[in-house]
Amino acid sequence: MSLKGLLLPTEKGERISLEHLYWIITVYFIFLIGFGLLYVLMDLKFGSVIHLNGLPVMGGFFAKLASSLYFSTMTLLSVGYGDMVPVGIGRWIASIEALIGYALPAAFVVRTAIDFENVKNDLN
C-alpha cells in the first residue's frame, strides 16, 4: 500500500490527518538537527563522540556537521548502518535519540486513533 493509499478517504470517509503527518515530519527534523548539532558541539568541546569506521571523524566543522547529521538521521530513523558508532558520552546521547525515534511513530498512531474515535463519537 502506498502513502497515497493511506491518505485518501476510505469508504467511511475517514483518513489519516495530513496535519498530523506534517507535524511528525517537522518534529523528526527538529530532533534530527538538534541532536546533530549536539554531537558537533560535544565533539568540539570534549573530543570525539562519534567514530567513523573505528576512527574519530576528521575534517573541519562542516565535515563534522555533515557526519553528525548523518549519524543523527541513522540513529533517529533506524538502528543505524554500523559504519558510525557513538563513543563515551555519545552513547548516552544516541540512546536517548533512539528512544525518541521509536516513541514518535507511536505518538502519531495514538493521536490518529484518538482523532478517529472522536470523529466516530461526534457522528453518533
From TrEMBL:
<feature type="transmembrane region" description="Helical">
    <location>
        <begin position="21"/>
        <end position="41"/>
    </location>
</feature>
<feature type="transmembrane region" description="Helical">
    <location>
        <begin position="61"/>
        <end position="80"/>
    </location>
</feature>
<keyword id="KW-0472">Membrane</keyword>
<keyword id="KW-0812">Transmembrane</keyword>
<dbReference type="InterPro" id="IPR013099">
    <property type="entry name" value="K_chnl_dom"/>
</dbReference>
<protein>
    <submittedName>
        <fullName>Transporter</fullName>
    </submittedName>
</protein>
<feature type="domain" description="Potassium channel">
    <location>
        <begin position="67"/>
        <end position="113"/>
    </location>
</feature>
<dbReference type="Pfam" id="PF07885">
    <property type="entry name" value="Ion_trans_2"/>
</dbReference>
<feature type="transmembrane region" description="Helical">
    <location>
        <begin position="92"/>
        <end position="114"/>
    </location>
</feature>
<keyword id="KW-1133">Transmembrane helix</keyword>
